[in-house]
Amino acid sequence: LGCEWRNVGQTALGEVGPTYFVNQGLALNEGGANGATLYLSGQYVILEVDPASPDGLLRSMNSMPIPQAMELTDVHSMHVGDVSVWVEEVGGEIVEWVLAPVENEAKKHASIIKYSPRESWRIADIRATSQQHMSWVAVDSAGVLYSSEFDDVVEILRYNASTLTPIEPSLPLATKLQGVQGGATYTCTNGAGECLYLTQNPPRAGVTQVDLHTGETNVAVRAPILTEAEGITFGALSGKGTMHVLNGHAVNARYRSHST
Predict the structure, then answer these.
(1) What is the DSSP string of 90-130?
(2) How many whole angstroms separate alpha carbon 246 and alpha carbon 213?
(3) Which of 2-16, 56-70, 180-194, 233-247 has the lowest mean pLDDT?
(4) Rounded percentage of the chain residues whose pLDDT exceeds 70
(5) What's the angle, vertex CA 3, arms to CA 49 and CA 193, rounded to 5?
């Protein structure tokens, strides 16, 4: 049993919420403390939105996700990418974290920042990495955080979502990927466990599925409508999984899985 992804709609972001420049990433947590929550990231902002609200009710906003101290360093951190959500138990309590990749002008030692949106976006941790580019992060159900470079991607790097420390070894890819901008984990198209789904820019615009055990890749969606593929997330819709892909030109394209 497999499935394919079919386009079921496109929505201009201005139709579903306040006008903010959120053209980098999105992450959906369907089991949040306040019900389902959608996080949208721009270069300089992260929004928490109620996805069930017809007008995209804004619940909270992190208007300064990059600490000033990071902006003033010699590398000048200046860019939030595609975010991810990680929920874990800490001291007997369920805690929701938003994890964000932050790039800098020097293109070296990109960072991961861990926020607590329930505590006024408190920064719980910041970790510099060995990556030059870090356009995206994605967390699986076991708490492994994945990321990669932007171009000439031959491996997926792994981190511990709780501590943000590297996990060795990396995952070699069977195929070199270019223009990787966003990532999220979801059920593999063959139904066997979790896979990683990566968005790619033109000319190979679309979504590539990565087997997290073997590094094998295959095309999940080829989407010429994407002028610049950015963030990606998954959420239920009418009993079937829906893939949401953020176009850099402020269009949220939705794809629904269909059994084949």
Answers:
(1) ETTEEEEEEEEEEEETT-SS-EEEEEEGGGTTEEEEEEE-S
(2) 27
(3) 2-16
(4) 77
(5) 75
